[in-house]
Amino acid sequence: MVGVLTRTVVRSPVVKCILQARIRSSTCNDVIFVGDDFIDVKEVRHQGHLEHVAAKANFDARIRAAKVFTIDPLLDEDDIFVKLENGEPSLDDRKLPPQCLAITLDSSELLFLYLRGDQETGFHFVHQSVPLPRYDKTIFQPGEHLAVDPSSRALAVVAAERELVIYAANTKDDIKRSIRQNTGKWPIVSTQRHLQVDGVIHHMDFLLPSADDEDHIVLLLVVAHGRRTKALCIDWYVGSDLHQAHIHPGQPLDIGGGTPSLLIPLSNASFFLISGANVVRWTNVICGSIVGREVTLLHRDPYHPGASPRQPMWVNWCRPKRVQARTDEVDHLYLVREDGAMLLLEVLEDEVFSSHAGNFECHVGTAFASVGDLQDPDILIAAGDMSNGKIYAIGHWSLPIRVADLNRLDTMKMRLVESLPNWASTTDMVTSTLPGKSQRFRDGVFITSGRQPFGSVTELRRGVEARLSVYFELEELRGVTDVWALPIVGVGRMLILLATPSHTQLLDISSDVDLQVYEVDEEASALDTGSQTLAAASNSEGMLFQITRRSICVSNGPAANFEDSARFDCRDATIVAAAIETGRLLAVTAERSGDLGSQSTLVCYRLGGNEDDMDRASVERKAELALQEEPLCVMLFTQDPATIAFVATTDGNLLAVSVGQDYTLKAISSYGVPTSPGGLGICDSMAILSAGFENGGAPDLPLLVCGLRDGRIYTSTIGPTENLALGEGKFIDFSQTSVKLVQVQDHGSICYAISGLDTCLLTWDRQRPVFVDIQNVFISDKSRPQLAQGPIVACTHMPAAHFLATTSLADSLVLVSGNEFLVTTLDTTLVTIPRQIPVSGTPNRLIYAEQQRSLVCASLQYGVNPFPSAAPQRQIWPVINFIPSRGSEPSFTYDMQPGERVYSLLEWSFRLGEDKIYSFILVAGSYTRSSGSVRGRISFLQPANKNWTVTGVKEGQRTSFDAPVYALALLDEITYAACVGSTVVVFRFAVEERKWEQMCSPFELASPGIHITVWGTSQIFISTAEDSLVKLVFSDHDQHSEVESFPHRLSFGASGPRADALLNHTWLEASTHLMTTKYGQLLGLDATSQTDGPFGQMLFEANLPRSLTRVRKCNVRAPWKPRRPTDQRAEKDRVADYDVVACAADGTIVGVTLISEDLLRRLSWLQRLCEWSEVLSPHSHGRAAYSVSEQSFARDERAMSVGLGAGSTAELVMRTGRSALSDRHVDGDVLARLLEGDGKENLRCLLREIAQREDGVGEWMRAHMAQELSAVDETMEIAERLLDAWI
């Protein structure tokens, strides 16, 4: 293994700002979430809920600032009709984006973006770039602040200090004309002017001119210079040249509270400047005699006393939508504080009125916005700062009737719309199956996240989200095996059939979110409730069909009726499997005449009206076919003009039977499911997927999906009915128990697979014959973020909307788990679904204690303790939370003393005798003495456990040290090693004396050790703060030594070849260590060494955009994900057969894998191609890290591998500024851009694009095009396998 591949598995949830921008069309109310290096576009839909539209993360640079630029002012409906009367093409303009997003990148670019496309074909970003001046020092690089004139006539970009660039925008008509022509060029700016200002620039924005001075453009900068805060004003008029802009002298601002935190432009060129709790309104800035007047706002006590010794700050503001007449008279603002308190301000010319708007109940940062339309209530979004974000609505949605029952107070109450998940910041991570009573077969990823009072231990899961709409609990649900939801025509309700092995339970429920349950008179029911239901369905007219083990029922409603209901009882046989075809009104059952092993028969029934009276319900037995083996399941599908029944039997075969137009049965052929290593490929359930079902047409060559008893899924194409044959087959590992498949009526391209804890959505897109996309389904509940999803036993979909009284629950996904009936809304977009278990304080350390079967989390908690004789005192102390492995909240919380800190946790257990096990949690950290000095301590906590739940903690002995204890590790069952400041110590437990004894002299390191691991019982590896990885050897003393007083010694073994500031490390293979640094590096080290010498060479170096705080070797890959080729395969294709994941402080999870030399060569070349592509890397292709251009200023020049084919030895000389070790890193995020859509075709287009270049790369590509094209399929299969191999 000589190279490394990394890929972002879970993107950071941190959002820097939120902007409302209609970047598609004027009819789409879009919201843009701007992160550090990505943007997400969502649309505000029904009652304020957000729906994903598009995302972009290929900037290859950091986003510094973002604003909205208006291309065409948004119009009211009345204004549109006026424009139509004047002959202006406003309806055509409404199809164009009226706004675009303007962002600055740290690659010295000003970028404008909008979205083009539609829901069916997909959206893509269109961009226009404006280069910014480049400077050697970041502090002088423009882009720190961005401002757009309220009428979008000008822009300004400024650095943190000195440098300022102002731009004049093109006319709106010119911009719209360029966008309408779709030529790829739509220049926003026309001219620019570069200026310099003295001082550090805190804020910048354009002021709002008065109504009688609309052509006046006023730019305001708040700068700090000469130990004074000043207002610097630059103004000019529309139509004048930028060089005529007048720069006014800086005017001192007398502000209290320190550095200003907010600048809020107001009407008539005035503004608010907020510093701490001090709010000042400034006027007359243009006249040169600026006047400030302090504003008193409504006071609210902090929601979280003790969070800081200071009062909470005002952190952001937004301007809600109001009609133009009101905005001319008064400024309406929402002002939000960092603890969630929010005020509504009404700013008049001479007065400011403030009122309490509500509490966001989350930490609020810079991401805050109002996104409602004029006809909507105020919709307010806060993304959350180290806590979940929230969306609230204030006011009422538009209703056709008058709401007369609510007063103003009720109307203006904040109502929660939904929560926005945020699991930052992350300081520790555990990957574990939670061994004990856990049913997990693979590791989960658990991280510390959030800040008090919203701290949590978060399990990160990837899949499709089933958002819980409503649920109820029934004890009778515990025996349910299947569920169906059928419409009750005429009343708009739903009939739920819950099948158990002994009977069927009926529920009559409403179709709204209240989900009222009505009684069902089972005695008067047209359906059979006395035995287990095997199949149920309804047709387009709402007729109900049910097949149980003893009968077949047909009815036009749930109540029995002489003409509208029919029932056929199977008195001499038991139905063991059944399927219903509603289109042809027939059913096929597999029936057994006696006990298990008796003769089985396949029977066809005609359902619905009889031949004499089509309106009268009937069930007619039409044909039989003897079966040679015991049937397990039956599945029907119609492919005009024939209907085919597949029957799975206990001998591992699939029998295909044709159902004729006259309902006769004829065996066509039999197919054997390929056997598994453990026995036959026995099929317990089946589904047939075809896109034709969803589109209402006939299916074309559908896909047969079999759920096998050994935990696998088998897929095979089905040939035409005239020559029916199963085509190519594929096995998919899914679980360790039998797989249950659920086919949902009227959803032909999807089905659900259930086995153990896994419930998955299977989707067939027909692009690849036997490939199905498998994604986990995870339930989320905004009111219960800690919800632990148990095994799902049954699922179905609610009826379509035209059957129901309301559409709120139409087509919802219904799940039965334990005693819960869950109705969810399924979002098929692949997302991260966090499960957040709340803990006390701000969590920072996490382990899994196997003996306690609990997650143990150390947090830092604050509080205010009032004393009778003094003012309240703020205190901070650690707490230890114990969370049961199958629990959703801590079972016990242990409080430590104020002044203590926790840096490391370790579980230690020892056996005394055969049955007695003592278990402790070692808590390492520091404490502050009364003198103010800081010392170290290891505390031994002994949990009390009842029914595998920690109910108490007894504190044992404490060991004190002269310096903080940063890390702990066990050498063996009774020996631990600890990093104490810059020393390493080893202690061993003397069982007979019941005390800990120091085993060797402390070993002095050059810098503090911050992470420690062991190999065997003698090798200790330590990540140091400044001196890379150090290896120590724990051994016995020389018997002839008379100097040492300890029986063992710690000796230097080896150290890294260079000094790196490490954060964490992990062992991967016998001679490979993976290390992370605080400067964003991921390092590979050959750990082989000579005695008392350095380690072997550095293997690779990956320079990542963020530092990784923890790295873990684990097994998180789902069984159905592509398996990596291991060393049983050819060496050239070999990669690591284990998973490695790492976390960053901003919540990012990165997947890591080691790759062989040949794969490194091929994938590095593939990455170079992607980086040079204008399509795949639109913002960085001109500054790629590796270049063949002779004009490149890169300092190094070396030969680099080229060629996609296996064993290629071709090389090209490239220039780069990166180190040679960085050549051995493959960025999976860049490769993943090829996988969007048809990856193979994307790569072929990319090769042809590169061949058009007039340089060395283009010349080489033209000469080797045939070889490169022939290697496309294999290369893309390798890339897909490697990039989809984590959670």
TrEMBL record:
**Signal sequence span per UniProt?**
none
Per the database record, which ranges form the RSE1/DDB1/CPSF1 first beta-propeller domain? Answer: 14-420
Q: Which Gene3D superfamilies match?
A: YVTN repeat-like/Quinoprotein amine dehydrogenase (2.130.10.10)
Question: The organism sits in which domain of life?
Answer: Eukaryota
Q: Which residues form the RSE1/DDB1/CPSF1 second beta-propeller domain?
A: 476-774
What's the protein here called? Mono-functional DNA-alkylating methyl methanesulfonate N-term-domain-containing protein
